Amino acid sequence: MRAAVVRASGSTATFTRRVGLKRRLSARSELAVEDDAYDAAPKYSSKDIRSGPGLSHFINRSASEPPAAAGKSDCGGKVAPREDEDKLAKLMRQVALAEAAEAAHERQSMLVDTHGRFHNYLRISLTERCNLRCTYCMPEDGVSLQPQSHLLTTDEIARVAQLFVRSGVDKVRLTGGEPLLRRDLADVVGRISALGVRHIGVTTNGLVLKQRVQALAAAGLSHVNVSLDTLQEQRFNAITRRRGLEQVLAGIDAALDAGFGGRLKINCVVMGGVNEDELAAFVELGSSRPLDVRFIEWMPFDDNRWNEGKFVGYSSMLRSLQGSYPELARSGDERNDTTKWYRVPGHEGRIGFITSMSEHFCGSCNRLRVMADGSLKVCLFDGDETLSLRDALRAGLPDRQLGALVHTAVLKKKAALGGHGDMQGIARSSNRPMILIGG
């Protein structure tokens, strides 16, 4: 068995891994010459870990703190104090469990939680900024934005994506904020597409989609989701606190012209007393065009003024549409789908319901999120963010150690709804505003 010395991106350190093992994910045979992040990886020793940066660089560090300088540790390169020794010992035990489980499973254990869920879908937030101020997403007074230096760079985003793709992720979605505000978005799409993922999508408010969709398609973008909650101009201005409905509708048309038919979804958050009377109008968007419309139950996040009185559940929405479309029929769902799909006979597009609150789908969840500041979020509703991939990357950790940290975080994922029980429990909990999580 020959060995290859692989240089970790963004680091000057090299380490040896074995290559030539049979690929576990045959769909990406083009990566056969690449080393798996874990296959036959050398085992940890206390010497290996202590010679690197202390865990305080990337565990329990506030996301708003400046990252540690690369190559330095909080202990000045010396052996960590007792508190860090305990954390190191705990991490070593978790790494050992991950390696033992890997030997028994065909797929990479880095992405498998204690409930047996394999996470092959990664959502990456590219920015905290947005050019709209949607009431259910951003607090009325706005949010405090982190300095640019606290956010992942383009190279760091590509490195994170590569780490996850090598471990089994085959679907990536780029979110925000508003991801189309990033000038380098086409470059980000191109670099992730080159990793061999089967699906790379973007979720956008659509304001500048018309101007950018052709370049994104050329870079390898495969799917587009547009967030749009009303088709009425005055209502749009009230919900988003901005103008721009015509631009969004033009962006949808441009996406269809660019070839995204059948791979374009409109996401509509339904709120009582706000837009629940527009369901049929949204369905008509897909009557003669190949686009899908999804109605999303309003979810509670910090400072979005969620209240149960304005909550419109799946069953209520379905009854309303069945009154307008008696022939509405259930359609097949895909594996790990978050959407309950329906069809109106004769319509090109589908109608879907995302029922996160009334009928959650946590048992088949396959999603992980990396926020713009590099924090890993294993569940949308869990406010516990103990792993900063940003700090780990800037501390110079190789992929093997990054993978062990990710696995440790994934093992903490709760069975459902971040452990809060129901939507009332989520509403009482502390979390980021949606704008800072990334859709």
Automatic annotation (TrEMBL):
It catalyses: GTP + AH2 + S-adenosyl-L-methionine = (8S)-3',8-cyclo-7,8-dihydroguanosine 5'-triphosphate + 5'-deoxyadenosine + L-methionine + A + H(+). Its EC number is 4.1.99.22. PROSITE patterns: MOAA_NIFB_PQQE (PS01305), RADICAL_SAM (PS51918). Residues 55-81 are annotated as: Disordered. It is an enzyme of class 4 (lyase). PANTHER family: MOLYBDENUM COFACTOR BIOSYNTHESIS PROTEIN 1, MOLYBDOPTERIN COFACTOR SYNTHESIS PROTEIN A. This is GTP 3',8-cyclase.
